[in-house]
Amino acid sequence: MTNANPVIVVIEDDPAIRLFLRTGLGAHGFKVFEADRGKQGIIEAGIRKPDIVILDLGLPDMDGVDVIKTIRGWSVMPIIILSARSTEQYKVDALDAGADDYLTKPFSLGELLARIRVALRHSVGSPAQEQSGIFTTGSLKIDLLKRQVVVGDSEVHLTPIQYRLLSVLIKNAGKVLTHQYILKEVWGPSYRDNSHYLRIYMSQLRQKLETDPTQPQYLLTESGVGYRLKV
Length: 231
Ligand code: CA
Description:
By secondary structure, the chain is of the alpha/beta class. The protein folds into two domains: 7-124, 3-Layer(aba) Sandwich (Rossmann fold), CATH 3.40.50; 127-229, Winged helix-like DNA-binding domain superfamily/Winged helix DNA-binding domain (Arc Repressor Mutant, subunit A). The protein has helices spanning 15-27, 38-48, 64-72, 88-96, 109-124, 128-132, 160-171, 179-186, 195-209, and strands at 7-11, 31-35, 52-56, 79-83, 101-104, 134-137, 140-143, 148-151, 154-156, 176-178, 219-222, 226-229. The strands form three sheets. A five-stranded parallel beta sheet has the order 2-1-3-4-5, with helices on both faces. A four-stranded antiparallel beta sheet has the order 6-7-8-9. The longest helix has 16 residues, at 109-124. The relative contact order is 0.10. The model has no long low-confidence stretch (mean pLDDT 92). The protein binds calcium ion. Residues 13-14, 56, 58-59 line the site of calcium ion (CA). The site of calcium ion has 5 residues, from loops.
């Protein structure tokens, strides 16, 4: 990370959560600015030019998804959303509007820091793995230049679509991706609603890459939302 003290703007109306974030993130060297309303949050995001925005979706003055759309009108700064458990579709809408990731309340500081690390890495641009052309996680090793996939000591053959699906996940490693996003990237815009394609191919990939496909270690399901490649 190039910036010694990354700046975070927190947009959240719950004072207890703001206190938790201010204290926890402050202790880890982040400079935290706060807003308790959407409109004020957008202004803070504009003035502070933060490295990350943490946004509660349930705000009193405006829809969290509209906050994302407004910020996305002029910035690609990473946005991590906070949301209540029972709102899967809302999370999907927020991710499709341009949010980078989400956490479901209640969450731990450890989980949040992990999400922040992933978001900062993506925003910095080309991770070391991309430069070397080799992606590794656990016993998986993918050579993106040779299009070679190795699990443990054995090379695994993937079909072109399976490989494309895996490379979309690698390009966004650690980030949650919605079903629609993956369908669009792998199959094209007209396949957005063909979730069953994705289920079938994800299951094939798991058969080939996971030790136990029923208990995936790498290709994780984000219930009701999409998938995430664990890093
Ligand atoms: Ca709220």
